[in-house]
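Allow me, if you will, to draw on your knowledge of protein folds for a short while. I am sending you one protein, given as its amino acid sequence and as whole-number tokens for its backbone shapes. Kindly check, if you would, that the fold set down in the tokens agrees with what the sequence suggests. The record follows directly beneath this note:
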Amino acid sequence: MASDEPCLIASKSAVRGQISGKQDLVVEGRVEGRIGLESHLTIEESGSVEADMDVSQVTVRGEARGDMVAARSAVLHATARVAGKIRAPEIVIEDGAKFSGTIEMEVELPAGIKAGGA
């Protein structure tokens, strides 16, 4: 039987490799590699992720480097430090968050507006 409790990578832990699954994941430590989840990834203030991420939702309070694809939403809190590409239908970047990279949102543009500028 699946647990509703998220999986935790504690602050003094480091993981290198590929993480996949259906359970929520909370990173307080360090992850390097690739993360593929059918659930919610949370990177806490003490957390550091250097990986390509393919998840349902992502919440960043700490540091993230790599391409981030979220099927539902990506939220960068004021304490977030993110470098890379973010692709999600809903993206929230709070005041104070540090972000360097590109954002892609799949949205329908009003008639007469071309994607990519004028």
